[in-house]
Design goal:
This protein is an alpha+beta fold. It has helices at 82-85, 95-112, and strands at residues 2-7, 12-18, 37-40.
Length: 113
């Protein structure tokens, strides 16, 4: 499920949840249409690359002709849901630990030779 929002001129308003393959008619909400909309809720398990413009395909149909600029921008945030809550970075081993481990390895290498 994805969350669909429309732009009210100053912020996004939640409209409804949609599923993959669903069609939504924005004109049913506003005869003038919308200049912006947002879809969020893409789970991390989908494995989409936010830097790949073809990773999340969205079909849009326009009711009039003319020149139109369309931008699709990935928003990479965690809202605290179970889907992304476990993605905190794992702490790296300390430099002293790694250096000590390397010295131990050198000691064993000297013993063998």
């Amino acid at each position: 499920l994805y969350n669909l929002y429309t732009w009210n001129g100053s912020s996004y308003d939640f409209v409804q949840e949609i599923m993959t393959g669903d069609q939504f008619n924005f004109l049913a909400l506003n005869a003038a249409g919308y200049s912006k909309f947002m879809i969020d809720g893409i789970e991390l398990s989908a494995g989409l690359d936010p830097t790949d413009p073809t990773a999340f395909v969205t079909g849009v149909t326009f009711v009039t002709g003319g020149t139109i600029t369309v931008t699709q921008t990935a928003i990479e945030t965690c809202d605290g849901s179970a889907d992304c809550a476990g993605t905190a970075s794992v702490p790296e081993p300390s430099v002293l630990f790694l250096m000590g481990l390397g010295l131990v390895g050198l000691g064993f290498a000297r013993r063998k030779s």
